[in-house]
Amino acid sequence: MEQNGYKNVTAVQKAVSDVSGTCTLYESGFNTADHRIYEVSKGRKAVKIECVSLDDYFKDGTKIDMIKMDIEGAEEKGIRGMQRILEKNQKL
Predict the structure, then answer these.
(1) Cα(20)–Cα(52) distance, integer angstroms
(2) Does the N-terminal or the C-terminal CB of the chain have fewer CB atoms within 10 Å?
(3) Which neighbouring-strand residues pair with 15?
(4) Distance CA 70, CA 51 (A)
């Protein structure tokens, strides 16, 4: 973000999920783009991380035009965690 001069981006070190709190991140040993918040195979290193639902993260009344998710198979959890956002942003 800094290298590209982006000023309208906020990086948050949390996983998007259907609840806020803690969850387990299962790390891939060879592909950093393949960490997941659900277990796909035995042998992955598991670490506790913070997670947040988008309904909790964004204040009620926040106008949202677009959401882009690439959360390694946890998209269903992400969608369940943004029901208020979906209801109140009909053109999303």
Answers:
(1) 4
(2) N
(3) 51
(4) 15
Residues 6 or more apart whose Cβ sits within 8 Å of residue 79: 86
In this prediction, residue 33 carries a pLDDT of: 86
pLDDT in tens, 53-86: 999 999 999 999 899 888 988 999 999 999 999 9
Put the strands of the sheet holding 15-16 in their side by side order: 15-16, 45-52, 21-27
Answer whether 26's CB lies under 8 Å from 35's CB: yes
Per DSSP bridges, beta strands 21-27 and 45-52 are antiparallel
Question: 91: how many CB neighbours lie within 10 A of its CB?
Answer: 7
Instruction: Give CA separation, 28 vs 13, 42, 71, 73, in Å.
Output: 18, 11, 14, 14
Q: What's the pLDDT tens digit per position in 5-53? A: 999 888 899 999 999 999 999 999 898 888 989 888 788 999 999 999 9
